[in-house]
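Private note to self, pasted from the team thread so I don't lose it. Backbone tokens:
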């Protein structure tokens, strides 16, 4: 009997404690009065207000941090969002925004991790094109092409991998390079190596270079209907 009485007493105290804590947690002092946003560069104040008004519920204790984080991640430029409470009525939201590395398939952007996302940007960015799911591969190839082209002070402004897995590159001087399906980086490096002895000697504008030849490359002259000449590099396999 004594044990039962003691158990009931502890149960009553637990209920009273729970009720007291519930009452305290609902006091106006714990209503959220400030939401601090860190790391926002592209995210606007209007977008933040929209998330707060439509997705944020509860007070300091009852706000679902995971749901709040998920709501911010849905914003166009947000890659990750971490939310934490600051006593007694404040939330701090730390955003990691996408860093646009290039445009993707003319209707999206790709970040430095090769992840595709949709957002508006007026930045001057290279254009990447490829089949669905190939963004990381195309981004990496673009970076490798950029490094190979450094001696010529040229940059790839467009890199494309078509459905047949054939590579092509448009350079900052307007020339298009057809690299083919295999050894694209090696073909480009060979062309860069023989550029001073071949391309640099041309006095006519060039539209396209076909690097898919085993020991040379074809030069398509700009606005010319003539058959393109094949350049044979002396002593080198181009």
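Design output:
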């Amino acid at each position: 009997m004594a044990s039962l009485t003691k158990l009931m007493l502890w149960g009553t105290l637990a209920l009273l404690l729970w009720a007291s804590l519930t009452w305290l947690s609902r006091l106006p002092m714990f209503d959220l009065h400030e939401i601090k946003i860190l790391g926002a560069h592209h995210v606007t104040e209007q977008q933040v207000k929209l998330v707060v008004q439509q997705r944020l519920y509860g007070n300091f204790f009852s706000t679902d941090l995971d749901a709040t984080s998920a709501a911010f991640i849905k914003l166009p430029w947000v890659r990750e969002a971490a939310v934490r409470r600051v006593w007694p009525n404040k939330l701090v939201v730390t955003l990691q925004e996408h860093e646009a590395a290039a445009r993707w398939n003319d209707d999206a952007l790709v970040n430095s991790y090769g992840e595709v996302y949709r957002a508006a940007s007026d930045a001057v960015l290279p254009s990447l094109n490829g089949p669905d799911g190939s963004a990381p591969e195309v981004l990496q190839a673009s970076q490798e092409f950029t490094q190979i082209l450094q001696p010529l002070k040229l940059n790839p402004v467009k890199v494309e991998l078509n459905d047949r897995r054939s590579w092509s590159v448009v350079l900052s001087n307007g020339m298009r390079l057809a690299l083919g399906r295999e050894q694209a980086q090696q073909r480009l490096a060979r062309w860069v190596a023989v550029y001073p002895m071949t391309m640099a000697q041309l006095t006519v504008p060039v539209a396209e270079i076909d690097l898919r030849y085993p020991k040379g490359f074809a030069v398509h002259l700009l606005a010319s209907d003539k058959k393109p000449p094949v350049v044979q590099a002396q002593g080198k396999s181009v």
